[in-house]
Design a protein that fits this description.
Chain lengths: 636, 546
C-alpha cells in the first residue's frame, strides 16, 4: 500500500517536472500578453503608477501578481521570462497541494477515491499549454480550483443524511478563500463563474448558511479589499481607467471581434475543446447519478463557455477556464468509470488491478516524460543558439524562439535604451522588448488603443473618441520626445495610415532616421540619431571619468561598456583617443604632440598599404584556385 | 389509440397555428430544401445526380424530394396543380404528425410496460404534455429551417429516442410471439429512424453516441435488440447496398467527387466567414442552450428523460461546430434538444406550484392545450417580427443604391430560363431560382467545389480523383458558359470571382458575356435570410448580343 502511494506520488512528480526540461532549454520563451504584464510589473516596481505612467485596459491585479516573478528573477539571477515560468509552476504546485489537503480532510467521502484522477487531470491542464501558459485565465484557474474542490466537498457533505462534518482548519479555508478571491478579481467576468457555481450548489442544497463559511467570507473580504484599494490610486489614474480605458475597450474591442463560428472552428485549438465539451456533457449526463459534483462542475464548464461567447474574440486563452473545468470533470468522470468497471469485475480482480496500476502508472508516466524531454532536446540539436551573455545571463536559447524585432532591438540599442512599438496588437513588441531587457519608451506598451479608437470613431456617435484619438497620438509623441526611445517601430499597415492624419512622423520623429522596414513583421523602424544620444547623456566630463577608470585598470573596457550601456567599440575608441592624447601630451618630442601624431598617421598609412597588398595577393590566390577547380571539374 | 387522439387534441391548437404559418407563407423554403427540390426536378427530367449536376446530398434526398413532382404527375387528369412547395410542406407536416403520434404511442406502450416498482414510471406518465409542448416549441423555433435535414432527422429520431429511453428503464417493445420483430410500433419507429439516418453523413455517429450514452447511463446489460434496431438497421443496409450499386458513372461521381468535398466541410475552416458580420450570430440560441443544460442537470433527478436530451443537445452543438458555417440550419438538433428541455423543465416547475394538481396536468386537456396555443402564438408573433425585420434588409440596401439579386434575376430572365449563379453557399441562389421558376444553368447547383478545390490546390493536397474531378468540372463550366443559354451569369465576388478570374473560364466568360454591374444578396444576416461571407456582392454578366 505504501509502495503504491509512493509510486503514484513519484508518477505525479515526474509528470509535474518533465516539462521543466522544455523551459530550461528555452529560458527566453514567452508570449505577448504574459510578457506585457511582466513589463508593467517592472514599471510598478520602479515606482510608476498604473494608468498614469503606463496604460492598460485591464484591472491592475495581474500587474501586482506579476511582481513576484521579478523577485524570483532578482534572487536567482534568472531571465524574467524563466522566472515567470517558475512562478506559474510554483502556483500550480500550491494549487495542487491545497487541493490535496482538502481531499485529505474528506477521506470518508466517495469522491475521495477519485482524487488522483482529478489531480492528474488538473496537472495535465497546466502541462498542455504553451502559448497560453501563465495567461490571466490560467492564473485564475490555479487560484480558483482549490476553492471549487473545497466547496464541492462542503456542499456535498451538507446534503448527506449522516454528514461527516470533517474539520477543515480555518487557516486552510481562509487561505483558499483568499486565493479564490484574488483569482476572481483578475478580471471582472470571473465573478460570473463563482456566482454561477454557488447558485447551482445552492439550488441543489438550499443551505444559505454555507455562504457564510470561512472560505466564502475570505472571498468577499478579498473582493471588497481589492475594490477598496482603488481609492488609494491617484484620481488621475482612476480617470484614465474608468473614463478612457473602459469606454475605449467596451466600444472598441468589436474591432477585434470575429464570427462565433470562427471562434469554434478556426483551428484545432478551438474545436478540440468544444468537442471535448460535447463529450463531457454526454458522459456527464450519463454518470450524473453517480456523483453530486457533476451538475455544479458542468455549470462551471457551461458558464465558462458562455463567457467565451460573450467575449466575441477568437483568442485561445479565453477558452482556458472552460478547458480547465472540463479537465476537472474529465478526471471525475474517468475516476467514476474506472471504479464502476472495477466493481463489475470478479471478486479478486479489483485488488489485483489496484495493486498493479500504480506501478504501471509510474512506468507509463516515466516513459512519457522521457520521450517528451528527449523530443525537446532533439528539437534544438543542430539549431543555432543565442547566448544569454548578451543579456547578462548564463546559458543559451534557440535562436528561432526570438524574432526579428528582438534582434533589431539588440543590434541597435543598449541596455538602458528605451523602445516604442506602435502596432495593432501586443505582438511583436512584446515579448521582444522584454526579452531584450529593454524598457518601454511610452506609456502605451502596445498600440491596441489606436485601432480600437479607430473602430470607436467609426461606430460610436459623438466627438468623444475623435478627441481621445487626438490625445492618444499626442501622448505617444510627447512620450517619444521626453523619453527619447532609441528605436520606434511603427506598423506599416495598421498604424501609419491612422497617425499620418496627425503628421506624427514629421512632428515627433524629427530626430530619427528610418532604418527601413522589417518585412517579416511589416514595421518601419526609426532610430534616434547618435548625436542626440551622445549630446544628451555623455558629456566630456562623464567620458573622462569612465576612461580614467579604464586607464587606471579599475575596470576593463567590457565592464565599463556593460555598466554604462554603451557599445564596447565606442568605449574602446574613447580609451584609444585618450591614450593617444596623453601620450602625445607627455612626449618630449620638440615638435610636440602634432609631430608625433603625424608620424603615427604615416605609420598607419604604411600599415594600411601593406594590408591592402596582402589582400590583393590573397585574391590572386583565390582566382588561381578557382581556375584549377574548374579545370579539374571539366576533365571529369 | 385514445392516448394519441387525446395528445393530438391537446396539441391541435398549436399544430393548427403552425400549419397556418407553414402553409400561409409562400416562397419561404429554406435554401437547402429548395436546392434539393430543384435537384429532384432535374433528376425527373432525366439528369443524373453528381454526373449532370453537382450537389453533395445523399441520393435518398433526391428520391424523397421527387414526391411533390410525382404527386402532380399523378393528378394529371385533374385540372389542379399543386405547387411542389405546397406538396413538400404537406409531406413535412404529415411527417410531423406521424412523429408526434408515434412518440405518444411509444410513451403510452412504454409507460404501461414499465415495472410498477420502477421509479421512472411516474416520470414517464408525466411526459405527455411536456413532449407535446416541446414539439410545438421546437417546430416554431426552427420554423424558418422547416424541412432541412437536421429537422427531418429530429422528427424521425424523437420516437426512437423515447422508445430507447423506456427500453433501458425496463419497458419492453418486443412482441410476445417473436422477440426479434417486436411490436409494429417498434418496427415503425425503427423505419422512421432509419430514414433519418440515411439522409446525411453525421446522423449515424449521433445515433452511435446516443447508444453509448444509454449503455453508460443505464448499463450495457439493459441493451435490447428490439424491432427498432432491426428495422433501422435494415433501412441503413438497403441504403448502403443501393449506394454501392449505383450506376458506374454516378457511383464514381458520388464517392470520389461529392463525398470528399462533403467530408472536407468537417476538416477545413472557411476563412471568408471569420469576420464578425460574415456568419449569423446565434449566441442567443447558445446562451439559451447553456442555461437549459444547467437547469436540466439540476432537474434530471425529478425527470430522467432529461438526461438523453442533454446528450442530444450536446451532440447538436457538435454538429453545429462540425458543419462550420454558423447557419441556424446547422443548429437545429441543438435547438430541438433545448426546446424539449425547456418544455419539460417548465412543466416540472409548474408541477411544483401547489395549486396546479399534478394529475390535472395529464388528465385535463384544457390547460395544456391553452398553454400550447399560447406558446404557439408567442412564437408566431416573433416569427412575423423576424419577417418584417428581414424585409427591411432590401430597403436598407436600396437606400445605399445596391441592387437586389432578386431584381436582376427577375428582370433579366424569363420563367423557365436557365440562370447561372456561381456562389459557394446556396442561400443567395435558393429559393430564389426555385421561386422564380428558373433552372440552374450550370453543372454546379452551388459552387462549393470551386472554393474547396482551389484550397486543396493551394495546400498541394490534390488527389488523382479530385484532380480528375477538377478537370471535369472546369470543362463542364466552360461548356455551360460557352453555350450561352443563360441570359445572365452572376458570380459571387468574395469567394468565386477571384477563382474564375485566375482560371481559363475568364476568357470564355468574356467572349460570351459582358460584365454590366453588381448586385447584392440584400440581407441583414438574420433568419429567414442568413448568409455566409463578408459581402454578398455579385458580378452581373449579361449575354452578349449574337
Amino acid at each position: 500500500m505504501k509502495a503504491a502511494k509512493i509510486s503514484i506520488g513519484l508518477a505525479f512528480a515526474v509528470f509535474f517536472l518533465y516539462r521543466m526540461v522544455l523551459w530550461w532549454i528555452h529560458p527566453l520563451r514567452t508570449w505577448a500578453d504574459q510578457s506585457v504584464y511582466l513589463a508593467m510589473s517592472q514599471l510598478l516596481l520602479m515606482g510608476k503608477t498604473p494608468y498614469l505612467d503606463f496604460f492598460d485596459f485591464n484591472p491592475p491585479l495581474i500587474i501586482y501578481l506579476n511582481t513576484v516573478p521579478w523577485l524570483i528573477a532578482g534572487l536567482c539571477n534568472w531571465p524574467i521570462t524563466y522566472a515567470f515560468i517558475v512562478f506559474v509552476y510554483l502556483l500550480t504546485a500550491l494549487s495542487l497541494w491545497l487541493c490535496w489537503l482538502v481531499f485529505d480532510r474528506f477521506k470518508e467521502t466517495s469522491e475521495y477515491k477519485y482524487r488522483w484522477f482529478i489531480l492528474f487531470a488538473l496537472l495535465a491542464f497546466t502541462q498542455a499549454h504553451q502559448s497560453d501558459f501563465g495567461q490571466r485565465e490560467h492564473i485564475f484557474v490555479l487560484l480558483f480550483v482549490p476553492y471549487v474542490i473545497l466547496r464541492c466537498f462542503v456542499y456535498d457533505d451538507s446534503g448527506r443524511p449522516s454528514a461527516i462534518h470533517p474539520k477543515i482548519s480555518r487557516s486552510l479555508s481562509i487561505g483558499i478563500g483568499i486565493l479564490a478571491g484574488l483569482g476572481v478579481c483578475i478580471k471582472p467576468h470571473f465573478l460570473e463563474v463563482i456566482v454561477a457555481f454557488e447558485i447551482v450548489w445552492q439550488l441543489c442544497r438550499r443551505n444559505f448558511k454555507l455562504l457564510l463559511n470561512s472560505e466564502c467570507l475570505s472571498v468577499y473580504a478579498t473582493i471588497v479589499l481589492y475594490l477598496a484599494h482603488f481609492a488609494l490610486l491617484p484620481r488621475a489614474a482612476l480617470d484614465v481607467l474608468f473614463k478612457e480605458a473602459l469606454p475605449i475597450y467596451t466600444n472598441g474591442v468589436g474591432g477585434y471581434a470575429s464570427s462565433i463560428i470562427c471562434g469554434f472552428t478556426l483551428d484545432s485549438a478551438f474545436f478540440t475543446p468544444l468537442y471535448g465539451l460535447v463529450a463531457m456533457l454526454v458522459v456527464s449526463s450519463a454518470l450524473v447519478r453517480r456523483s453530486n459534483w457533476i451538475p455544479p462542475l458542468c455549470a462551471l464548464v457551461l458558464i465558462s463557455f458562455v463567457i467565451y461567447l460573450q467575449a466575441g474574440t477568437v483568442w485561445t486563452y479565453r477558452m482556458l477556464p472552460m478547458q480547465a473545468f472540463l479537465d476537472l470533470l474529465l478526471g471525475l468522470d474517468l475516476g467514476i468509470i474506472c471504479y464502476v468497471l472495477l466493481d463489475s469485475l470478479p471478486e479478486k480482480a479489483p485488488d489485483a488491478i489496484k495493486f498493479v496500476c500504480p506501478y504501471l502508472l509510474l512506468l507509463g508516466v516515466c516513459a512519457y516524460g522521457y520521450r517528451e524531454a528527449s523530443a525537446y532536446i532533439n528539437d534544438i540539436k543542430g539549431t543555432n543558439k543565442f547566448s544569454l551573455s548578451a543579456l547578462g545571463y548564463n546559458g543559451t536559447n534557440p535562436e528561432d524562439d526570438l524574432d526579428s524585432v528582438f534582434y533589431t532591438i539588440l543590434k541597435h540599442t543598449n541596455k538602458q535604451d528605451k523602445v516604442v512599438l506602435m502596432g495593432p496588437a501586443v505582438l511583436p513588441g512584446y515579448p521582444a522588448i522584454l526579452q531584450a531587457g529593454r524598457l518601454p519608451g511610452s506609456r502605451y506598451l502596445h498600440g491596441m488603443i489606436l485601432p480600437m479608437l479607430h473602430y470607436c470613431r467609426e461606430h460610436a456617435l459623438g466627438k468623444k473618441f475623435d478627441d481621445m484619438e487626438r490625445q492618444v497620438v499626442k501622448n505617444y509623441g510627447e512620450d517619444i520626445l521626453k523619453n527619447k526611445p532609441r528605436l520606434v517601430f511603427i506598423s506599416d499597415e495598421f498604424i501609419k495610415p491612422q497617425i499620418e492624419n496627425y503628421e506624427f512622423i514629421p512632428t515627433y520623429l524629427k530626430d530619427y532616421d528610418s532604418l527601413g522596414s522589417l518585412h517579416q513583421v511589416k514595421y518601419e523602424v526609426f532610430k534616434l540619431r547618435d548625436s542626440q544620444l551622445a549630446q544628451g547623456a555623455w558629456t566630456v566630463d562623464k567620458r573622462r571619468q569612465l576612461v580614467l577608470k579604464i586607464l587606471m585598470d579599475t575596470l576593463t573596457v567590457e565592464q565599463a561598456a556593460a555598466q554604462s550601456g554603451l557599445p564596447v567599440e565606442r568605449v574602446k575608441e574613447w580609451v584609444k583617443r585618450a591614450d593617444e592624447a596623453i601620450g602625445a601630451a607627455l612626449t618630449d618630442n620638440p615638435g610636440g604632440g602634432e609631430t608625433e601624431l603625424r608620424s603615427m598617421v604615416l605609420e598607419t598609412m604604411e600599415k594600411s598599404h601593406r594590408q591592402e597588398q596582402e589582400i590583393i595577393e590573397l585574391k590572386k590566390e583565390v582566382t588561381t584556385l578557382r581556375t584549377l577547380n574548374m579545370g579539374a571539374g571539366k576533365s571529369r | 389509440m385514445k392516448k394519441i387522439v387525446a395528445a393530438l387534441s391537446i396539441a391541435l391548437p398549436g399544430l393548427l397555428i403552425y400549419a397556418f404559418d407553414l402553409f400561409g407563407h409562400q416562397g419561404d423554403l429554406a435554401a437547402p430544401v429548395a436546392l434539393r427540390l430543384t435537384a429532384a426536378q432535374l433528376m425527373l427530367s432525366g439528369l443524373t445526380p453528381y454526373v449532370d449536376f453537382w450537389d453533395w446530398s445523399q441520393p435518398v434526398n433526391y428520391w424523397l424530394c421527387q414526391f411533390p413532382y410525382v404527386t402532380n404527375g399523378a393528378l394529371e387528369g385533374i385540372p389542379y396543380y399543386i405547387p411542389p412547395e405546397l406538396s413538400f410542406k404537406v409531406m413535412l407536416f404529415g411527417l410531423t404528425l406521424l412523429s408526434i403520434a408515434l412518440t405518444i404511442r411509444v410513451l403510452d406502450i412504454g409507460a404501461k410496460n414499465l415495472p410498477e416498482e420502477s421509479p421512472v414510471k411516474a416520470q414517464a406518465e408525466g411526459l405527455y404534455v411536456p413532449l407535446l409542448t416541446g414539439f410545438i416549441a421546437a417546430l416554431f423555433c426552427t420554423r424558418f429551417e422547416a424541412g432541412v435535414l437536421q429537422q427531418i432527422f429530429m422528427l424521425t429520431l424523437m420516437p426512437w429516442l423515447t422508445m430507447r429511453w423506456l427500453t433501458y428503464q425496463g419497458a419492453s417493445f418486443a412482441g410476445k410471439a417473436d422477440i426479434y420483430l417486436g411490436t409494429r410500433t417498434a418496427l415503425l419507429a425503427g423505419l422512421l429512424l432509419g430514414l433519418g439516418l440515411i439522409l446525411d453523413l453525421p446522423h449515424l455517429p449521433v445515433l452511435i453516441v446516443l447508444e453509448i450514452f444509454f449503455a453508460l447511463a443505464y448499463g450495457c446489460r439493459r441493451f435490447k435488440f428490439d424491432g427498432s434496431v432491426f428495422s433501422s438497421s435494415l433501412v441503413c443496409l438497403v441504403d448502403l447496398i443501393y449506394l454501392h450499386g449505383l450506376p458506374l458513372s454516378m457511383n464514381k461521381a458520388f464517392w470520389q467527387w461529392a463525398m470528399p468535398i462533403r467530408m472536407r466541410q468537417y476538416t477545413r475552416f472557411d476563412a471568408s466567414i471569420s469576420a464578425y458580420v460574415a456568419s449569423p450570430d446565434r449566441r442567443d440560441a447558445l446562451y439559451m442552450m447553456a442555461l437549459a443544460l444547467v437547469v436540466a442537470l439540476l432537474l434530471q433527478v425529478k425527470q430522467d428523460f432529461l438526461r438523453p436530451l442533454i446528450a442530444l443537445t450536446a451532440l447538436g452543438l457538435a454538429l453545429y461546430v462540425g458543419e462550420g458555417d454558423g447557419l441556424t440550419g446547422s443548429l437545429v438538433v441543438a435547438l430541438w434538444g433545448t426546446s424539449f428541455i425547456v418544455s419539460i423543465c417548465a412543466w416540472q416547475l409548474l408541477r411544483s406550484i401547489k395549486w396546479i394538481n399534478n394529475n390535472s396536468i395529464n388528465n385535463a386537456m384544457v390547460l395544456p392545450a391553452v398553454a400550447i396555443a399560447l406558446v404557439a402564438l408567442i412564437f408566431t408573433n416573433s416569427l412575423n417580427r423576424d419577417r418584417d425585420v428581414a424585409r427591411q434588409g432590401p430597403t436598407v440596401f436600396k437606400e445605399q443604391a445596391k441592387t437586389d439579386i432578386f431584381d436582376i434575376v427577375n428582370n433579366f430572365s424569363k420563367t423557365g430560363d436557365s440562370v447561372i449563379v456561381l456562389c459557394d453557399y446556396p442561400m443567395p441562389i435558393y429559393p430564389l431560382l426555385f421561386d422564380l421558376d428558373r433552372q440552374p444553368g450550370s453543372y454546379l447547383l452551388w459552387s462549393r467545389p470551386l472554393r474547396v478545390l482551389n484550397a486543396i490546390n493551394h495546400f498541394n493536397a490534390m488527389t488523382p480523383a479530385l484532380s480528375e474531378f477538377e478537370k471535369f468540372l472546369y470543362n463542364r463550366l466552360e461548356s455551360d458558359i460557352s453555350r450561352a443559354q443563360s441570359p445572365i451569369i452572376l458570380i459571387a465576388k468574395n469567394s468565386i470571382a477571384g477563382i474564375v478570374e485566375k482560371s481559363d473560364l475568364k476568357k470564355t466568360l468574356d467572349a460570351a458575356y459582358e460584365r454590366t454591374g453588381e448586385c447584392y444578396y440584400c440581407s441583414i444576416n438574420k433568419e429567414p435570410a442568413e448568409y455566409c461571407g463578408f459581402e454578398q456582392a455579385f458580378d452581373i454578366y449579361r449575354r452578349r448580343a449574337r
